[in-house]
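Researcher: We're teaching a course module on how sequence relates to structure. For the next exercise, students receive a sequence and then see the predicted structure as tokens, so they can try to spot secondary structure elements on their own. Here is the exercise chain.
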Amino acid sequence: MATQSTDKAAYRSSIPILPFTNPSLATGWLDSSRQTSSVNGKTIIVYRVPETTIRLVIEVYNNELPKLAMSGMILRTMNHAATHIEAKGDGVLERGEDPLWLDTKQGIIFGLWSTDAQRRLTYRDLESTAKGLWAALYLDGKYNSAAFTVFDLAYTSGRRRIGYGVLRAGHLRALVSDS
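Model: And here is the predicted structure for the students to work with:
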């Protein structure tokens, strides 16, 4: 039993503390593996999430999101993954969470789903994706909607995507009623 609580403490200490008041202070776990380009008037960011094998290709849209709501959604996603990992360990996203849809009262939606039947998304992938969005978008001052593709560099040398997602304005009720 002591080993389990020690493992939880070690895991918890590896999660970066991301203060709401000044998120730029929490950049010790970031690196500079980022490429930004403009393709057909769209901003594309290729971001390698530090200390992971996850690479994100992020298409940034022009519509801005409320800064506080965006930070809350990304942090909520990180917390959702970290809580699951702490309680049950890592593993593929559970039934009902692939696709994963989260929303906030402030009108921000986060969606992520697996795109490769042989390599389903895990809670660690979810956490890494949220950390990558935090670093590549929020800390860089890009408070915009985005679509993103998730690659695992350890799987097929990163040539096949393992997930796809969105961060955008809206409410899940609107998505359900539109279908």
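Model: If you want an answer key for the exercise: The longest strand covers residues 54-64. The longest helix spans residues 67-88.
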